[in-house]
Amino acid sequence: MLPPETHITELLNENFIFYKPRDIVSGDFYWIKQVNMSIVLVAADCTGHGVPGAFMSMLGISYLDEIVQRREITQANQVLNELRNQIKHSLRQHGQRDESRDGIDLALCVFDLKNREMQYSGANNPLYIIKDVNGEPELIEIKADQMPVGYYQGKDKTFSNHSIQLEMGDTFYLFSDGFIDQKGGKDNKKYLSKNFKNLLLDIHEQPMHIQKEILDKTLTDWMGDNSQMDDVLVIGVRV
């Protein structure tokens, strides 16, 4: 179900995908499609892992194919709005007490190849962009809406749409929470987003395949004797 990395490289030249399922099958997935002059990239984290998470992944991939590829919807937040409608309908989520609470957290980016612009919309999962600012690297966090694609206790709102002008050399990252939430280190604590941001700042100028290797080694060293707690997904792209 997942696209081969060679296909992603055909669409986005400099990239890496660090994908480390906890079990044989995964609740994290990545997805990419080109529609006319737009490329849509998704990093997603479904409720659960193993078989339940994999089922949600299959639903998410199937509906993204329909929304983006067949219906050619390429406005980032509109894709998330439509995906939420499909997921809630499929799982019969109407706000009743005993119904499914499954959903998907994800970051979705749409690249305009002609104008080097990017849209981002997020459901609980942010986007990190590292830009050169006055000769120094700066990590910019674009925050996600604090609601999933699926059942939400609050009132459903339209997902936010963020427009970003990209520059040559910008590097951006989409990811699930598996890396950040992994417990380890000398105090057996979570890795945390602060350390993850610092790690990305330290490695962002490295070739993409080296960044992937460093992420893998860092996670392994951090875990130590601990078991992997969740599926892990990090996608990096350099403009």
Shape designation: globular
Structural class: alpha+beta
In CATH's first tier, which class applies? Alpha Beta
Identify the CATH architecture: 4-Layer Sandwich
Low-confidence stretches: none
CATH topology: Phosphatase 2c, domain 1
Ends distance = 26 Å
Order of helices and strands: HEEEHHEEEEEEEHEEHHE
Helical content band: 25-40%
H/I helix tally: 6
- Count the beta strands: 13
Q: For the CA atoms, what is the radius of gyration?
A: 17 Å
Q: Tell me the name of the CATH homologous superfamily.
A: PPM-type phosphatase domain
Number of domains: 1
Overall residue-averaged pLDDT value: 93
Q: What does the main sheet amount to?
A: 6 strands, antiparallel
Give the percentage of residues in beta strands.
25-35%
Describe this structure in words.
The model has no long low-confidence stretch (mean pLDDT 93). Helix 2 crosses helix 3. The protein is built from 6 helices and 13 strands. A hairpin with a 4-residue loop joins strand 11 and strand 12. The chain is globular. Strands 2, 3, 4, 5, 8 and 9 form a 6-stranded antiparallel sheet that branches. It is an alpha+beta fold and 239 residues long. It has a single domain, classed as PPM-type phosphatase domain (Phosphatase 2c, domain 1, 4-Layer Sandwich), CATH 3.60.40.
List keywords for this structure.
single chain, 239 residues, alpha+beta, Phosphatase 2c, domain 1, 6 helices
Quick recap of the structure?
With 239 residues, the chain is of the alpha+beta class.
